Amino acid sequence: MLADDDLSWLVSVDDHLFEAPDAWTSAAPASIRDRVPHVVQEDGVDTWVYEDVRTSITGALVQAGRPTEAIDPGPVNYADMLPAYYDPLARVDAMNQDGVLASLCFPFFPRFCGQTFYEADDKELAAWCVRRYNDWVIDEWAGAAPGRFIPLIILPLWDPAMAAGEIERCAAKGAKAISFSENPSKLGLPSMHDRTGYWDPIFSTAADAGLPLAIHFGSSSSIPTTSPDAPIMVSGALSPINLAYCLTDWIFSGYFERYENLKILLSEGGIGWIPYMIERCENMIRSHEWASRVDFHYDLGSGKGEASDRGGTVLASTPTDLFRDHVYGCFIDDVYGARHLEEVGFDNVMIETDFPHGDSSFPSSIAGAHKQLASHPVDVQRKVLRGNAERIFGLDLPDPATF
């Protein structure tokens, strides 16, 4: 076992996998085998096919471990990729090289929180595909190297009752986390402020099962930008803004007060902005107390406001306390945030490597983490490197001496 003062390994709570080409077809009955996600060659390019979706893997997504001069944003075939991108045992070898003891991986073809299946026409087939992905990621991806992966499942977002059942089923199989959207309203689903209770079955079941929601930026199928012709550097630099929106939605949604065991991770959003956003939420409560009595919406474009008598947001807890009890910020390279960990919360921060995407810290993840955390005592470093993840996911980490 790792000693408490052993800082030679980290747990990454945001990495990415590419499903094996037969991930769905290998388990599909003959009657649907040609309709589930599968890979075909189209004009010499490995292409995932499902309903009217045609998706290839781009070089921009598989950069870790490749020389900079070899990176091209064009399509990449499986035969030309490093096996660590799609093979769990090869991934473990890369993790050993990088000082990563365990890894949580977001999906590729389903997209971050299963949007591909939510958008599908045949929802019965889509539900089968969701269940199959979850079985594959638990049994075949994580199952190939017990203890080295944190199984993350997706849900049939269009049916909360079905999703609750899937959470229970997968929790019994060993799932450790659930992928969820940063802004379901952008997907055409009820928002975080929906008053009909649409999300209650999912959030209550997740809380009861002790499975946190991992919320990756871009899981609303949108990215922030300033104009249609802004270069990718603009939206890339602004990407954490989506999770600032997400955090604020959750703070004022009321869900944290209703489900005391519900936890969320803000994946790949950095942490340096969090203290200001919490302070901003606190200031809103102090300066706009009247908004707790009246539900008021203001259109900045027209200058018109509209109030209803259904009441606004009333919090029994402060935004600071809600964050401390329910939210975990995650970062890769955030020198400012790492320097101000106390303001974020020593118990509310975890680290990522983003393998194999362009922001990945591979192959120097553990060295980079040590550099960012060097000013903090050993007990704080241990929390950020692995202790908080062990606690939140209920991990039984393997002994590195055995590999």
Give an overview in words.
The chain is an alpha/beta fold. It has a single domain (10-402), classed as Metal-dependent hydrolases (TIM Barrel, Alpha-Beta Barrel). It is built from 14 helices and 13 strands. It has helices spanning 88-98, 115-118, 123-141, 160-173, 200-209, 232-238, 240-251, 255-258, 274-287, 319-326, 335-339, 341-344, 365-373, 378-393; strands at 10-16, 38-42, 45-50, 53-55, 100-106, 152-153, 177-180, 213-216, 264-267, 295-299, 304-308, 327-331, 349-351. The strands form 4 sheets. It has a 6-stranded parallel beta sheet with strand order 6-7-8-9-12-13. β2 and β3 (45-50) form a beta hairpin. α4 (160-173) runs parallel beside α5 (200-209). The longest helix has 19 residues, at 123-141. The radius of gyration is 21 Å and the shape is globular. The model has no long low-confidence stretch (mean pLDDT 94).
